[in-house]
C-alpha cells in the first residue's frame, strides 16, 4: 500500500527533543526509517510501521530519511482526553503497566485506512483542524483498543510512577539527558527522598555520579570502540561538545580527542 498523500502531520504537539515522554502518543511512520531506545530495548520502525509511546517513559530517537524525506503521523492522547474517553466508552483499566516506554502495535488494516483518512482534515502546516481533533483521536483509539484490549491498562492508568528499584533504573538510564527532579519522579520518589536514597546507595550525589558514569562510558567508547567525541556526547547525556570536553579533561587529565586518537592507533 502506498501513502503518497501523507506527509508529516500532528494532532497536538510535535515530538519533543526532550527524552521524557509527558503524554502517550501514537506514531505512524509514513516515509523513512526510525530507531528508538528506552534504556532496555532498541526498537526499529520502517515505513508503514506504527507504535505507542508510553507516558512517563524515557526514549531516544534517531531518524533516517528516505531520499531526503522523513514523514510521520503523530497523535497525542493527553490525560484530559483519555479521562473523557474512558467515561464515555466505559473502558476499564486492568493490570499493571508493562515494562518499556514503547509498544509496537499489532498490524491492523484499519490503522492504515485511518491514516489515509486524515488528509482532508489537515491545514497547510500538517496540523489537523481543532474541530476534528477529538473525533479523529477517538476513532483511532477505538480501533486500537478493539484490536488490543490490553492497551487499556496503559492508556487509562492515570497514576504517578510507583517506587521502583533505584540502582537498576539509574544504571539503565544514566545516559538520558533529563533533570534530577525527573529522575526522582520516574523512580517514585520526592526529590529529597531520591537524593537521600541515592547517596545511601551510591555514596555520591546524583549529579556527580551521573557525570562520572557518563564519562567512564565515554572513555570506553573513545578508546575501545574508536568513536569520535562528536559522535557520542549527545547519546551520553551531555548537552554540548564543549561541556563534554571540559568535564572529560577535568576527570581524566587529557582531552577526549587524545583518547580517541590513541584508540584509533591501537586498532
Compressed to H and E, one letter per element, the order equals EEEEEEEEEHEHHHHHHHHHH
Find the structural class using helix and strand composition.
Answer: alpha+beta
CATH topology of the largest domain: Jelly Rolls
Radius of gyration, rounded? 21 Å
Strand order of the largest sheet: 1-9-3-6-10
- Low-pLDDT residue spans: 1-7
Tally of individual helices? 11
| Overall strand count | 10
What share of the residues lie within helices? 40-55%
**How many strands, what sense, and barrel or not for the largest sheet?**
5 strands, mixed
Shape category: globular
Mean pLDDT: 89
Class of the largest domain in CATH?
A: Mainly Beta
Oligomer: single chain
Protein name: Helix-turn-helix transcriptional regulator
InterPro entries: AraC_XylS_family_regulators, ExsA-like_N, Homeodomain-like_sf, HTH_AraC
Keywords: DNA-binding, Transcription, Transcription regulation
Domain HTH araC/xylS-type: 164-262
Topology, please?
Blueprint: E1 9-11, E2 20-21, E3 24-31, E4 33-37, E5 42-45, E6 50-53, E7 57-58, E8 60-64, E9 71-77, H1 79-89, E10 102-104, H2 109-117, H3 130-147, H4 152-155, H5 166-173, H6 180-186, H7 191-202, H8 206-223, H9 229-232, H10 241-252, H11 256-266
Parallel strand pairs: 1-9
Antiparallel strand pairs: 2-7, 3-6, 3-9, 4-5, 4-8, 6-10
Helix pairs in contact: 6-7, 8-10, 8-11
Question: How would you characterize the overall build of this protein?
Answer:
By secondary structure, the protein is an alpha+beta fold. It has two domains: 9-155, Jelly Rolls (Sandwich), CATH 2.60.120.280; 166-266, Homeodomain-like (Arc Repressor Mutant, subunit A, Orthogonal Bundle), CATH 1.10.10.60. The chain contains eleven helices and ten strands. The strands form three sheets. The chain has a five-stranded mixed β-sheet. It has a three-stranded antiparallel β-sheet with strand order 5-4-8, with no helix packed on it. A two-stranded antiparallel sheet has the order 2-7. α6 packs across α7, α8 (206-223) packs across α10 (241-252) and α8 (206-223) packs parallel to α11. The longest helix has 18 residues, at 130-147. The radius of gyration is 21 Å and the shape is globular. The protein starts with 8 loop residues before the first strand and ends with a helix. The model is unreliable at 1-7 (pLDDT under 50).
Amino acid at each position: 500500500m502506498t501513502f503518497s498523500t501523507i506527509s508529516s502531520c500532528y494532532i497536538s504537539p510535535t515530538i519533543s527533543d526532550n527524552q521524557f515522554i509527558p503524554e502517550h502518543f501514537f506514531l505512524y511512520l509514513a516515509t523513512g526509517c526510525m530507531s528508538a531506545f528506552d534504556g532496555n530495548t532498541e526498537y526499529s520502525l520502517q515505513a508503514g510501521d506504527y507504535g505507542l509511546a508510553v507516558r512517563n517513559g524515557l526514549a531516544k530517537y534517531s531518524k533516517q530519511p528516505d531520499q531526503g524525506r522523513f514523514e510521520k503521523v503523530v497523535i497525542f492522547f493527553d490525560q484530559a482526553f483519555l479521562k473523557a474517553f474512558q467515561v464515555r466508552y466505559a473502558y476499564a483499566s486492568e493490570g499493571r503497566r508493562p515494562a518499556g516506554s514503547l509498544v509496537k502495535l499489532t498490524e491492523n488494516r484499519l490503522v492504515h485506512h485511518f491514516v489515509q483518512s486524515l488528509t482532508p482534515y489537515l491545514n497547510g502546516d500538517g496540523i489537523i483542524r481543532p474541530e476534528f481533533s477529538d473525533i479523529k483521536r477517538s476513532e483511532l483509539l477505538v480501533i486500537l483498543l478493539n484490536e488490543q484490549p490490553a492497551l487499556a491498562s496503559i492508556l487509562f492508568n492515570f497514576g504517578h510512577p510507583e517506587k521502583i528499584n533505584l540502582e537498576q533504573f539509574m544504571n539503565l538510564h544514566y545516559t538520558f539527558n533529563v533533570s534530577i527532579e525527573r529522575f526522582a519522579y520516574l523512580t517514585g520518589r520526592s526529590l529529597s527522598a531520591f537524593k537521600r536514597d541515592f547517596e545511601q546507595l551510591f555514596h555520591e550525589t546524583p549529579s556527580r555520579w551521573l557525570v562520572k558514569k557518563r564519562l567512564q562510558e565515554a572513555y570506553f567508547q573513545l578508546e575501545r570502540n574508536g568513536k569520535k567525541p562528536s559522535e557520542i556526547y549527545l547519546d551520553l547525556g551531555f548537552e554540548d561538545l564543549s561541556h563534554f570536553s571540559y568535564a572529560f579533561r577535568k576527570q581524566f587529565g587529557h582531552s577526549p580527542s587524545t583518547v580517541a586518537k590513541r584508540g584509533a592507533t591501537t586498532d
